[in-house]
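Lecture notes, unit on protein representations.

Consider one protein chain, 416 amino acids long.
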Amino acid sequence: MKTEKFKVTPLERAWILYDVGNSAFVLMIATLVPIFFNALAEAGGVSKVDYLAYWGYATSVVTIITAILSPILGTLADTKGFKKPIFILCVWVGIVGCIAMGKMSAWLPFLVIFVIAKVGFSGSLVYYDSMLSDVTSPERMDEVSSKGYAWGYIGSCVPFVVCLALVLGSSAVGLSQMTALSIALVITAVWWLVVTLPLLKKYRQINYVEVEQHAIRQSFVRIGQTLKHLPQDKQVFWFLLAFFCYIDGVYTIIDMATAYGTALGLDTTGLLLALLVTQIVAFPSALIFGRLSQKYESKTLIPVCIAAYTGIAVFAFFLTRQWQFWVLAVLVGMFQGGVQALSRSHFAKIIPQEKSGEYFGLFDICGKGASFLGTMIVSVGSQLTGSANVGVGSLIVLFIVGFVLFRVSFRQGETV
């Protein structure tokens, strides 16, 4: 067991800081951006039912585009000299899109820009996750990955608190709420850019495949070969299936928390503050899981997190009061960072490092690109039973299946 204090290198610190930047964008998208769109939709004469539908359609479009582009971008990332330039392009698309959303005065152009910005953000994560094998060694991956999520959670709160205060107190400083929201988007974009600069300066691609003629065409060839041979790499194959299930449940709880609380008639301000508490609790929790990873392997800790989320889904089934939502927010914060960080580092350790971009493209599909399944389960369960509690409680199925499949992946790894 390691007892010495864990110190990050300058390159690892620069990599961690990108999580601090992009997490601010994630928090804005989950909280204040829907308020901006709602105001534009109402001004455009869109009903609340259509507003929810259009927002859902836009999110689905992002999911589909991400699912298509992720393996392509990931395979290009493995080519020597390609990863950093395309990463920069994706980051700029996300940052410029974030600013541009605040300049829109109609709901449809706003949704178009939202889709573009979110795709840029999602594309940058394919490259960012695949950089893990370049910035650290396999035995340090669990803790470095955990620190990325931990500092991302707490760091994103800095611009968010400023933005939230600006929006809620807009009238006190003589601003309309729409103007305040527009400024909040600019603040978020500037924060994202500034904390990304150290990574852009320090990162160098170490693991790669050599540049070939017709690099783009060859990237498609490599995708085909990887998909063809993926079932033969049983540990990776079964892990991706497991990850598809359990992380979909995790993201669904994150994405639908506010909508779930609203459907139960809980106070909106209280819901936003509870989500802020989730971010704060997730900071030390992710660090704790990082330290635990020095004593216990990720193949032991990940099932613990999945089991905890199963319990969270059961608790959500019985949720009816505001204080229970706060308890739910704390419980989610305790395990959210751990399961995300350990899954990322565990995957990075079981794949070929020179094909990290290609494999993390598939990883992204099974994660963010497949998030429709959990929301569909919640929606269908709620509509069939007339109960939002039953809908959210139905996510138990995803966590149980994910737990079983992860154990299969673990056993396959032992036989290699």
